[in-house]
## 1
Amino acid sequence: MATTTHPDPGAIGGVPKPPLAILPDPDSLFARRANRFGFLAEHDPRLGPYLAFLADLTALQARLIDELPEPDPITRDRIELARASRMPPIDRDLQATDEVLHETLTVLCHEALSLEMPEPAKLALQAVVSADLADRHWLLENLLSDRIPEDSAAPHLFAAAAVQVHMARLASMLDAEALVPIRTGICPACGGRPVTSQITATQGIENLRYATCACCATRWNEVRVKCLSCASTKGISYRSVETEKATVKAEVCSECDSWVKVLYLVDNHSLDPVADDVASLGLDLMMKDTGFSRAGLNAYLAGY
Amino acid sequence: MNIDLSRRSFLRLAGAGVAATSLGAMGFGEAEAAEAAHVRAFKLTTTTETRNTCPYCSVACGIIMYSEGDVKAGETAEIMHIEGDADHPTNRGTLCPKGAALKDFVKAPTRLTRPRYRAAGATEFQDITWDQALDKIARAMKDDRDANLVQTNEDGVAVNRWTTTGFLAASATTNETAWLTYKAVRSTGIVGFDNQARV
């Protein structure tokens, strides 16, 4: 609390400049997300089992942060080169062979064996655990290029959990100030695509939109009412389930016929970019019939 | 390519089966089906968020207008909410009390939507045509200018000053419109004048 009675006009006149990017904090990111998954699981009688499983998996991600070896930070030369060429500093192609990422995948999958899950999930997990180097590389390479083959969504789900942990830790080591905007819908830290975007409620950046990277969880500022897939500002509309005030909407672009979810944190600050994406599967199911295709990436919702 | 195929089939056979979604592949197909059955009872509504400029003053703050229904899709749209556009460099989402009350301005039953006229001494407004309205305004301006135009100042220097009439022009215009408005109004001598070109 301020102890002085002198007025501070600075607080009134100052309009803060929104930061381009907000880097993830792995220590709190996964723990919070696990809580949110847990809360949603308790309150959703239909998707509950899946959300509860993801709560366990995310809690495992949170726990491993302290146990895994530190990834090698991106070198200063690399960051300078990326800045000069207006490219993201993290080259995801190089990460597919990164030793720490491979160890993250191995450790995460071994630990995940003790989680409760249905038989098909367990089989897929065992397959990843016993996969050779080339197979693991194939999984990681797919995820790092935003690709999930439709016939192997389950093994990719576990690999995605490992990629999320590794990339969030790597991104958290960057300097947010040194990032440059790449292009609409492209993460300035790793070049990834968004999972969802959020209308923020944080003081100073209220009502602005930040997209969350599906790969490294960096949040970056995007102009509102703009397609995150093709950057068009024409023909944008929103679809939501008929309610008085929807907090999750599909931002539909009639120029490229795709859509990405927008979460209104201004109306509910508990929403999580990944957990609430899964919990609002109903919207995806309804959007399937509209002819528009989902552009938000989420390895927990492959096939939508 | 053969190698790739065998690798894929290994992982596929090991876990996923033929299910095309994460939920199906992970064995949560039942939950997925329950959700699909649940949403069948609901419909999607369309809302829009449209950028515009606050019409009040020359600062020209950015606003976002929230509507239910999509005019572009042939539906009727109804404005539900108006707020400052946080992306707009001028106001960064803030609005003054007048701008913050814009929805009531749009929906006001007394909002002027056509030219109307109240004769001197009358209590009621009557509808008139645009031609009649513009003729009346031109007549009133001409009479006032003829009576009150200042053509020389105290030192006897020629000036063009018309101080008895004021002019308030639009805030949401292009540079070209603002320039033309300025030219037209200033050349009549009007000094009490505001439009976007001021800022």
## 2
Amino acid sequence: MTGPDGPAVQQVIDDFNASQSEIVIEPNIMPWDQLYQKVLTSVTSADGPQIIAMDASRVPQYAATGALATTDDYFADTTYMDTSVLPSAAVNASKFRGTNYGVPFNLAPMMLYYNKDLFKAAGLDPEKPPTTWDEFADMAGKLTVDSDGDGKPEQYAIALADHETVPMYQPFLWNNGGGVVSEDATTSIVAEPASIEALEFWTKQVRDNKVSPIGLAGADADKLFQTGKAAMEIVGPWMTNGFNEAGIDFGLARPFAGPVAQDTLMNVVTFTLNAKNTDEQKKAAYTFFTYWNSVDSQITWADGSGFPPTRTDVPADKLQNEYSAIFGQKELLENSQVLLAGVPNAGTITDDIFHPALQKVLNGKGSVKDIFTAASKDIQAQIDKG
Amino acid sequence: MAPSLAVIAVFMVWPLAQSAYLSFTRYNRIQPAEWIGLDNYLRLVQDPEVWNALSNTAVYAVVVTPLTVVLALLLALLLNQSMLARGFVRTAIFLPFIVSMAIISFAWTFLLDANIGLITYWLGRIGIVAEQGWLADPALAMPAVMMVGVWKSMGFYMVMYLAGLQSIPQELYEAARIDGAGPWHRFRHITWPLLSNQTMLVTIMAVIATIQVFDQIQVMTHGGPFFTTETLVMLIYRVGFQNLELGYGAAVSWVLMVLVFVLSMLQFGYFRKRAVTY
């Protein structure tokens, strides 16, 4: 919300505050890392926030401590809204042990951005980005360019971030039939053959074929695509403005399919409630959630941010911002997954186990099998710890 | 005296006592702290992350402390001579110390970036290719954060040494010259012994600062790649404030506290015998 999407949020909040006289929403927008550092201190203080918007994957961590109130009654009570218009993946993303602790605030599926000029320069059709892993591997050979022959490419086929990023490697595991954690959120499956095979394919692409630099954070990957040094990146709708301003002529497509599936990552931000709220405050919050998720508000939000609307029944011809429609394609949303939804300690699993293990492999510190077998034990321990 | 005692009590003694208590509990800020006795301490002895952080901290301290002190002394000796633009050079070396470490770290992060870094580019031109940039390469990340640590603090220690050099009576050097002592002997038998007060102060400060290193690592590498630059303070921050294990974080910070205390006492004991008064 600190980026170009901030004004769109503010617009909806201003509209809400003007639309009635009983409830006032005062937003306090801050960078994510700051937010997560402050959540617990502010929730425990007497004067803390009543609503906290956070990434759905963080919900279990805070719900387990008792800091958040359930929102099950919001979905049960039909007087607020017909919640069946909200995509179920987004609604379920904030569930922890069968209880929901959130109401969708926004959702963002990742898409493949590709630089049309670089495709043309490599002799590729700028309207035909890769649709499978094999096509990617073929095209990557032409899009990775080491013009001065020093062993370090000046241009990379893709920018794949391996830490501090929206997860970029994990969907590859899904698309080979594997994953990080089983669907019921109880078992680590990162060392299953399908997961290992996917990791072996991609780490080989990066290490041996140098399709992407090693050691990129999410912001580095964005920068690389933004400066025309990477021909592709898989990222969310928040980058469209930045890439346009940088003058990149980019196309958008569904990320290429793996051998088993063509799923993409969906990032869900959800409204959560301070457990200390009074009933009256909770009702007021629900009134606001309903307003936020109304058709009109979602048009305002989608037009201002380029994000898809949170509801599936907004007619596409009502949306002015072309990107909202592209990122809101039914086919894309229906084939999106939320990473580690409902898994306790999801942040630790991603930041302290999966990404470091991936970096070890990329830096040649061992085989995928050995490193991820060890990582799998650590992931299981985090799940069991709850 | 009373007001300062009150400040110390509120901002030092009370938090210390609190963290000592928390280190024997399981605590996440929401639920009340649960007494678990020595469990946190038993856990940290077996925790490979703690040993990794301890070893990274030791490596950092063992390299950065002597390097900073020696460079500070050499620069002080050099800039104690009369030379062209002496004031400018002294200021230039001291300047990094007064700039916020976070800002310096951001600047170095850009300079060392794999794809847009100026230093990476220059080194690439003369054939030194850091393919992943300095900060993402497990072999180069630690040297990079060390270099920034040395570069930032050596100016401050240099100023302390300069003050020491200027308090040494010139007569001693004159007498030594008359007795035929060369530059090395004058340094070895006059300058070095008479700087031992400064050396004590500078070394103790440098050891404490290096063991508590945090800022530049937090900004430049976040402890990565795969924890190769994670120090004890970074680990405390991660387990305490990111993983919300405040009891365990408190236990690790007590280990750090005892470590700093013991090392400082050892140094103090060693240097006290060599203190000079004149």
